[in-house]
Amino acid sequence: RAKEAGGAGWRFYDATMNEEVSERLALRNGLRQALERGEFVLHYQPQFSLEDGTLVGVEALVRWRHPEQGMVPPMRFIPEAEESGLIVPIGLWILREACRQAAAWRTAGLEVPRVAVNLSAKQFQRGDVAADVLEALSAAGLPPTGLELELTESILLRGADTVLDTVRRLRGLGVHLSIDDFGTGYSSLAYLQHFPVDKLKIDQSFVRRLGEGGDAQVIVTTIIQLARSLGLGTIAEGVEDAATAERLSALGCLQGQGFHFARPMPPAELAVLLAGRQRAEAALRPS
Ligand code: C2E
Ligand code: MG
Ligand code: MG
Ligand code: MG
């Protein structure tokens, strides 16, 4: 078969491979430059209590403001940033910037109880995450309770002593910890006993299919019950409509995040939204 395909087939294959490699190298160099030139920005997506509608926090989500391509979503560059190790310096910038922004909101009188930052596994393998977090908090003047770190199951499942040690140190600082995309990782729940986390984030793939009943509903119900019996909080991500929010609330899920409530937005836009909410609440309070 290989003979039939002939030399041309191989040349085509080689060309494709080379193209892929050079595209990745270009992306890698682009990411390095983006960091130097300050082209990364953070958008923030509000998270709400499903019980009383109050704002419980915001998640920081990185974007690359590319000079030619416009806003590049994280899925287009985070994988290469992780592969190349550049996620370590980029992640450090994200951590510092999110803490700085959270402290600035407080100074401006805007009530953002907590900012959640996503961490990659690479940030745990290399470098000293706990030291970075402590440094970012004190540089910003943000109390540790104002920061939440979103870990993935893959970080915890690696289960090395150093990971456990780091997670315990972070928790010891008073930083909140959640497990992102919960339910999509390998199904070892044993690590939940060892890692002192606060909250499970129910993955949006289950949330989106909740209305269909069936498997998704069973999984979401099970996660909520598991969290409750371990004394952990729950937040559903990817809540896109009112019916889903109501279903989640009825199942006992405590918090929600998704387009139904608000999309991720630049900090200036979030400030306008929060100021409006705070004015409305103040107007309702008896004076
Ligand atoms: P994630 O942490 O699970 O973030 C949730 C993603 O779902 C975000 O996409 C958000 O915009 C999107 N989303 C929120 N609500 C809805 C909804 O109702 N419907 C739908 N269809 N989507 C919704 P985004 O911002 O594109 O981020 C994608 C992923 O990129 C994140 O998933 C996270 O894994 C990664 N990422 C984003 N920012 C960072 C970061 O600062 N550091 C690291 N390490 N990873 C990040
Ligand atoms: Mg997340
Ligand atoms: Mg998630
Ligand atoms: Mg997700």
From TrEMBL:
<protein>
    <recommendedName>
        <fullName>cyclic-guanylate-specific phosphodiesterase</fullName>
    </recommendedName>
</protein>
<feature type="domain" description="EAL">
    <location>
        <begin position="24"/>
        <end position="278"/>
    </location>
</feature>
